[in-house]
Design brief:
Length: about 500
Amino acid sequence: MKIKNFMICLGAAALTLTSCSRNEDTTPTPNPTPVADEINDFVWKAMNSWYYWQPNVPNLADSFKNSSGYVSFINGKTPDKLFYSLLYNYGTTDRFSWIENDNVIVDAGKSAEVEPTSGLHYALYPKDNSATAYVALINYVSPGSPAEAAGIKRGDVITKVNGSVLTASNYDQLETSQFTITRAATTTLTSSALVTTDKIENISLTRVEKDENPVAFYKNYVYGTKNIGYLVFNAFKADYNDELNAAFAKMKADGVNELILDLRYNGGGSLETAVALGQMINGSFTGQPYTYLDFNNKHNDEDGWDYLKNTVNTYSLVNNHPEVSGQEAVNSLTLPKIYVLVTFQTASASELTVSSLGKYVNITTIGDETVGKYVGSITLYDSPASDYTSYATRSTKHKWQLQPISFAYYNKDKDPVPTDGSGITPTVKINPYSFFNNIKEFGDTSDPSLKKALELITGQTIGKTAEARFDNDINYRTKALQVNRTNTAKGLYIQDFSKYRNQK
């Protein structure tokens, strides 16, 4: 009988793990206190401190940190999903914040100085108002890139990616590590559509790591007394401050007295570089306020002015992070008026240049309405001792870092900025579809925007540009802009905020 009872107990133990011990401990095991994920805790705390719209996000409220639901909330997501869940009206109010891991952007934006690129820089256009099929117009090709080696040139039109017609759903394949493209053999504009025929080709491209020089092109045109400098500047990158400064030294040597500044493909970048550019264009206002930064209420002590100054920092890349290597005197012109070329890809620090410099210099803008990004960011690292602003003291356990919108900017008069997402309306409107068949290499006066600027300066007719027949319906611009936002560069940002604090 004892054996039978023993066997029954043993069987029950195997099935239910019920103890038959006479000294059974019936005290329940306490549940362990949940611990916040270390990386997600950094994401939340950094956003709670610095995010510009922090007061508008209930899950970023100070009281939420000590609530019973905090740990389960932040632990229930990956760092990137948590980050995007904390943004205020993402896609409408906040269109520009992003997070990255090991210089790889998750979901939006661009960040690293050295980036993987095929060398293609393009804008996407719907072929008609249905926005079913798109084409990619090549704005320019990076020197020394796979795209240049493949013979792709500015003005080429991509119709297919990986053998499929380009659409709003697959255009992101142009940013993968390896892909194929097909270009148009012919491009015809009608009053209602962009009509293309394809070349028989399937060009394979790969992406390589490259730190692209944003000072892309300079040419000097002389028409009588008009000595015109044409400068293509594609990103405000602090590690190329010296190259930008050298371009203005060249203009001074050339005796330039008129400037066409091409910011059509410039999505923004370093605030420091933007202020330096203003000084380079006209050095008569050293020490004057250039732009005003407004942070959230937790950082009102950071609010304040950036002033024009006659020196600029130079940088070297250390582990893909710009570190100050020296300082140069700014090469300044004294231009009372400039002409700025803009498009629906012109954003942030480029818009700041128009808004802030326009208080000192007469600016004529030529092209299409800009993006409408009147906010900027600082890079946030897992360095709580510095309130998440120090790269040097960041945790090395992971490589996540944040680029949330952290401030709004204004010109010296603090003029109100649009709140509906609209950008800067150009002085002279150019139908962006007129670029098809009319842009070749930089400096060619078949380019409608460059041609118009030269004509305004000289009072002469410069060559002839075919007129676009495609109706400039707002729907076309809206649909083009929507798909181009992911190709907008990183926007206005402060390179190293902990150093910036000491410089203000």
